[in-house]
């Protein structure tokens, strides 16, 4: 019994036929010699560490509890030359001692850099796949993992495959739980998706139910990881070829768990709003903002885990869905982080510190103007302590201020096509929204003898988003059912051809609808709060809503988030493009216009940059069609880096000069206009007006497009800076050489393209460098590197865009 106990302790192979150590019954020569025994097709080969069969106590048995630094003396060693074709013996130490001395060595040295030589030419290498694959994997990883970790991995592997039968069964059982974990994770994510969708729709009960289901599934998966996977995790954490899959599963489960926790914070905020019906808008939004703030840490942990998940560990049918979910969740997290920062400004904006009055400017993108659309309507909004005190929408629209305006100033020259006097409805002339907002306030002050605390411009397209939250609105007065699908066209029809127009109240429908919306927001459903915030954030980022406040804190908040609609500031060496359209006397034809912007930058051998901008406008309307079938008359301005030189411009068509109005002689020039628009010259070849505005150079001219036709114009100009200097040894870009690890000169090119509110142009670009330059890095949406530059594939300008490229000179 003592002898068997010693054998069990050392875990050596002992044949039940010949009682010798080193093989089992199926490989015993004596057993194979018996006629009743099946002959193996090939001898089983394996490594035997112990050449002295009399000593059953292995020299390698180490007490891991007491020995903590044993791995420091471990080196890798190849098996020594075999004695015969069936067995391989090795037991080398660092000093390369003689065989007799090796038996007394207590160090384990394995050197995979050596090659095994065989005295017997008929001998073959071990064919057992476990050991073969194990060795290959370790060899592949040897240069990537510290020696100490390699040693630990080897010992753990040896422990795993020499462990008792119970441990191996445990390992097999853990492998079988992989499907269970994947199943629980998948079910959890599906429930999580349902919970999020229900929460966004305001279905709190369903959201809570699905969230509970998600948490239960993730908790079960976590329990499985912490119990059945615990042994495998301990080993796999030191085995690079096993740890990836295990860690991916673990990250997937923990990510889902963190997302569920984050959702629970948001859901708690919604439930708090629902339980307090008397709360104000500011209180509700602050509750949501606080809930978002609490949820973000969990979401960030989830994002980190999701980034480390290999989609291949999931069932095949869920892999693409997971990739899409990871992208969407990234955008979702970014949006929530933006919303959480709004809390400090909300109190001021919504009257938390007293009565606030705002001018709401309703812009119609179907008749495009620089800040988003024609100012056909406006409203005055009074708010205090988060409550709407009053919303006044004049039934006559913006023209109600005409008779009250006390100032007579000459408008910008292109606007003389419609009016000889500059008035409120044309006040959003500047593409820089803060400048236009201040001009709106100026007109309002000189018309109503009253001031306002800010301007909020709202494009008509926002109405569709509001209706998608509130649902259809019934206009009993006109027997209309207004939905998100028909709102714009239906309201436009009533405004232009409805019975109220005969009474000079064409915008009466807007005044009536305003009261319906006021009642809705006064009694806003708690369940709609998150949807409103999400849509608000999207509208602000896409310039469907732009805001300007006189309060410095609120003003800076809008600027920080890029929601104030200002012309972007650019630095030295940054290319910039901003195409601005202004429909003047073209009716609502912009609803049928498709605009494409083709940009090209050609870099000359001396570093000069020659840009070409080709703008195509296609009119898809039908001649004679009501509202939309009119000729589109567009005054277009292209803003480029300040100091750019116009080389050539072509393709322009001017309106009939006789249609321009002539101001009265006693009208005054507008002082603000003269300060902002500083004319440089008029291009004699094309009639293009060149001005300096907002630290940019602007090229302005006319483009007229008939229904079912296309128009095309082109600007060719030289930038005021070079892509690289003749002396490339003293340029800032060469500091990047340390990053890209190159000693040759580098050049960079960066393009910033600004989106005009109300216009979703399609944009593409090409940047071409001299032949000796090769791109080595690029960044930006739809950007593709070429041999001597890069291309930007067609992309819709829903937001501002930026692209960058770094090149290396051969």
Please render the helix and strand layout as text.
Layout: H1 2-10, H2 29-33, E1 46-48, E2 75-77, E3 87-89, H3 99-102, E4 109-111, H4 129-141, H5 147-161, H6 165-200, H7 204-227, H8 230-236, H9 240-275, H10 281-307, H11 316-340, H12 343-349, E5 356-364, E6 374-384, E7 387-392, H13 433-448, E8 454-459, H14 461-470, E9 473-475, E10 480-482, H15 487-497, H16 508-522, H17 529-541, E11 545-549, H18 552-560, E12 574-583, E13 593-603, E14 608-619, E15 632-641, E16 645-650, H19 671-676, E17 678-682, E18 689-693, E19 696-705, E20 710-722, H20 737-740, E21 746-754, E22 762-768, E23 773-779, E24 783-786, E25 789-796, E26 801-809
Parallel strand pairs: 1-3, 2-4, 5-8, 12-21, 13-22
Antiparallel strand pairs: 5-6, 6-7, 8-11, 9-10, 12-15, 13-14, 14-20, 15-19, 16-20, 17-18, 18-19, 21-26, 22-25, 23-26, 24-25
Helix pairs in contact: 6-7, 6-9, 7-9, 8-9, 9-10, 10-11, 11-17, 14-17
């Amino acid at each position: 019994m003592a002898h068997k106990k010693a054998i069990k302790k050392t875990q050596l192979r002992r044949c039940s036929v010949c009682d010798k150590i080193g093989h089992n019954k199926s490989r015993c020569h004596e057993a194979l010699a018996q006629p009743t025994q099946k002959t193996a097709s090939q001898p089983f080969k394996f490594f035997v560490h112990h050449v002295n069969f009399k000593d059953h106590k292995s020299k390698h048995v180490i007490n891991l509890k007491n020995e903590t630094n044993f791995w420091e003396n471990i080196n890798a060693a190849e098996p020594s030359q075999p004695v015969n074709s069936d067995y391989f013996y090795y037991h080398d130490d660092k000093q390369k001692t003689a065989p007799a001395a090796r038996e007394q060595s207590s160090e384990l040295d394995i050197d995979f850099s050596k090659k095994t030589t065989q005295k017997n030419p008929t001998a073959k290498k071990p064919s057992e796949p476990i050991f073969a694959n194990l060795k290959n994997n370790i060899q592949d990883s040897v240069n990537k993992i510290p020696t100490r970790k390699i040693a630990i991995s080897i010992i753990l592997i040896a422990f795993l495959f020499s462990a008792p039968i119970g441990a191996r069964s445990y390992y097999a059982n853990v492998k079988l739980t992989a499907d269970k974990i994947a199943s629980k994770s998948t079910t959890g994510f599906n429930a999580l998706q349902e919970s999020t969708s229900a929460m966004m729709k305001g279905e709190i009960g369903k959201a809570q139910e699905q969230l509970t289901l998600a948490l239960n599934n993730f908790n079960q998966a976590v329990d499985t990881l912490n119990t059945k996977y615990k042994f495998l995790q301990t080993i796999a954490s030191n085995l690079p070829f096993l740890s990836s899959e295990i860690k991916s599963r673990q990250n997937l489960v923990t990510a889902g768990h963190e997302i569920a926790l984050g959702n629970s914070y948001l859901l708690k905020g919604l439930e708090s709003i629902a339980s307090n019906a008397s709360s104000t808008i500011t209180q509700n939004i602050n509750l949501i903002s606080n809930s978002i703030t609490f949820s973000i840490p969990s979401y960030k942990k989830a994002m980190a885990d999701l980034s480390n998940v290999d989609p291949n560990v999931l069932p095949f049918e869920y892999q693409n869905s997971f990739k899409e979910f990871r992208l969407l969740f990234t955008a979702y997290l970014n949006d929530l982080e933006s919303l959480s920062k709004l809390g400090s400004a909300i109190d001021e904006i919504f009257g938390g510190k007293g009565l606030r009055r705002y001018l709401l400017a309703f812009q119609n993108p179907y008749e495009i103007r620089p800040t988003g659309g024609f100012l056909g309507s406006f409203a005055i909004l009074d708010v205090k302590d988060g409550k709407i005190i009053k919303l006044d929408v004049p039934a006559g629209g913006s023209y109600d201020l005409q008779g009250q305006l006390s100032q007579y100033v000459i408008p910008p020259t292109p606007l003389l096509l419609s009016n000889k006097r500059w008035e409120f409805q044309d006040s959003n002339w500047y593409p820089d929204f803060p400048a236009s907002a201040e001009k709106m306030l100026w007109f309002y002050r000189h018309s109503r003898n009253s001031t306002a605390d800010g301007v909020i411009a709202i494009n008509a397209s926002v109405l569709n988003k509001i209706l998608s939250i509130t649902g259809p609105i019934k206009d009993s007065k006109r027997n209309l059912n207004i939905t998100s699908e028909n709102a714009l066209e239906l309201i436009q029809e009533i405004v232009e051809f409805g019975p109220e127009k005969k009474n000079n109240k064409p915008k009466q429908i807007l005044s009536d609808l305003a009261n319906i919306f006021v009642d809705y927001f006064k009694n806003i459903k708690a369940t709609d709060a998150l949807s409103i915030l999400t849509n608000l954030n999207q509208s602000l980022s896409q310039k469907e809503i732009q805001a300007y406040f006189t309060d410095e804190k609120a003003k800076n908040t809008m600027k920080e988030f890029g929601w104030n609609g200002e012309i972007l500031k650019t630095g030295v060496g940054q290319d910039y493009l901003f195409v601005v359209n202004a429909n003047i006397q073209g009716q609502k034809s912009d609803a049928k216009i498709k605009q494409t912007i083709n940009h090209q930058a050609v870099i000359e051998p001396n570093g000069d940059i020659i840009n070409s901008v080709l703008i195509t406008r296609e009119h898809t309307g039908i001649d004679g069609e009501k509202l939309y079938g009119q000729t589109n008359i567009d005054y277009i301005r292209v803003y480029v880096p300040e100091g750019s030189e116009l080389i050539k411009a072509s393709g322009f068509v001017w309106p009939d000069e006789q249609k321009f109005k002539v101001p009265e002689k006693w009208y005054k020039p507008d002082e603000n206009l003269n300060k902002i628009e500083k004319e440089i010259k008029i291009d004699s070849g094309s009639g293009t007006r060149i001005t300096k505005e907002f630290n940019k150079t602007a090229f302005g001219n006319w483009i007229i497009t008939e229904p079912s036709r296309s128009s095309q114009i082109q600007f060719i100009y030289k930038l005021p800076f070079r892509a690289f200097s003749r002396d490339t040894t003293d340029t800032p870009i060469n500091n990047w050489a340390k990053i890209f690890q190159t000693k040759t000169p580098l050049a960079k090119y960066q393009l910033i393209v600004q989106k005009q509110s109300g216009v979703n142009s399609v944009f593409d670009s090409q940047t071409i460098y001299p032949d000796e330059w090769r791109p080595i890095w690029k960044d930006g949406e739809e950007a593709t590197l070429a041999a001597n530059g890069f291309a930007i594939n067609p992309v819709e300008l829903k937001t501002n865009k930026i692209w960058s490229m770094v090149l290396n000179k051969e």
